[in-house]
Write a structure and sequence with these properties.
By secondary structure, this protein is mainly alpha-helical. The chain has helices at 12-28, 36-59, 64-90, 96-118.
Length: 125
Amino acid sequence: MSDKIRKHSDLKVFKISFEAGMQIFELTKIFPKEERYSLTDQIRRSSRSVSGNIAEAWRKRKYPKSFVSKLSDSEGEAAETQVWLDYALKCKYLAKDEYDFLYDKYEYIIAMLINMSTKPEQWKI
């Protein structure tokens, strides 16, 4: 673990997931009004939960099982976000290049979360 990481917002995976959540927020502003309480709400919630669960995991890192559990929750939310991106593309709410960019970003986030989960002792206080 780098000695420069003092809080969850210092983690690269947190920064990328927060940025992705904000990108989704901006893109969903153009979704149809009839999607406000369905697809728009779902994709915003899941994308925000990724970084939220990373923050929780960081605070639970002294307990490896709790740490890994919260990282797993974050991974699940990232995968859920990918499903909502699939729907947004299929419904033609997103351009293919926007979809590809975000989908790949979530693949990268998932890979980082898996790496952290497989070596929880590296992150322990």
